[in-house]
Amino acid sequence: MALQTKVIKQKIRSVGNVKKVTKTMELISIAKMRKAVAKRHAGVHYGHYIMELITRLSAQQHLDHPLFEERLSGKRILILYTSDRGLCGQFHSRIDKRVRQFLQNHQGQEIELVVIGKYANQIAKRYKLPIAYTLENNTEIISINDMRHLAHWVIEKFSKNKDYHSVSCIFNQFESSLAFNSVRVKVLPIKEELMSEIYGTDFVASHDRGKKFQYTVEPSEEGVLEEILPELFALTLNHFMLESTASEHSARMVAMRRASDNAARMQNKLIRDYNRARQEAVTKEIIEIVSAAEAMNKL
């Protein structure tokens, strides 16, 4: 019985140490989430109007650019936004599920991956998909310059190679500190539906219904579009990165909170088991003492 109480006491200590670790990780995730959410909130309206400008430009019939060109067939580029670290609940499983749905909807078609984060590489290996581009920086320090390099590579591929049909992004979109949702957004060719895919509303209806925007581009349409579209596209990709980062820290915060709660419940159960074992040991000792006393009295 003494051995049993010793084992339970060791388990209580181990679970307590785990709870301390998960609680610390939860607090760190809360701080990182608040910082990421602040960045996301600071850029969400900016990103909103950037995509609004892109989609309005794409709606202008007189503007001609390879990024607006609709193609009937060809390879598809898929950009995956993941993390380098685990312990974040369903953050990566939802991305994996969205990739699986994408592959089921495009069976037999050639797909190339752009991977952001270590877990995107694992998804590529799982589904045996070729990796065309890897963003090697740690996901926590990816900058707008990294996204500009990625945007330049994607635009170069799509504009100069007619073999590519479209470019899509899969990422987790931040909804609240306790919720996020995995989404797939088709970013190339640029179409008016881009805004409604991201925000879930009719872009035309929610932005000046019935009003047509006719842009006059000077000094030349080709020159201005060559300058503005890559930058707008890079900012769009960066906006998705902010959404993914905020979702990651939110998911890790929730996962660590649940782990801490589970550890607390397990610790309380072990404490009850320990007290019960001690009580049983004390009761057994009392019975043995009483039995020995009665036996002595009979002699």
Task: Give an account of the 3D structure.
This protein has 299 residues and is an alpha/beta fold. The chain folds into two domains: 2-25 and 258-298, Helix Hairpins; 30-253, Pyruvate Kinase, Chain: A, domain 1. 62% of the residues lie in helices and 14% in strands. The protein has helices at 2-58, 91-105, 118-126, 144-160, 194-199, 203-206, 221-298, and strands spanning 75-81, 111-116, 131-135, 164-176, 179-188. It has a five-stranded mixed β-sheet with strand order 3-2-1-4-5, sandwiched between helices. Helix 1 packs antiparallel against helix 7 and helix 4 (144-160) crosses helix 7 (221-298). The longest helix has 78 residues, at 221-298. The protein is elongated, with a radius of gyration of 29 Å.
Kindly summarize this structure in a few lines.
By secondary structure, the chain is an alpha/beta fold. It is about 60% helix and about 15% strand.
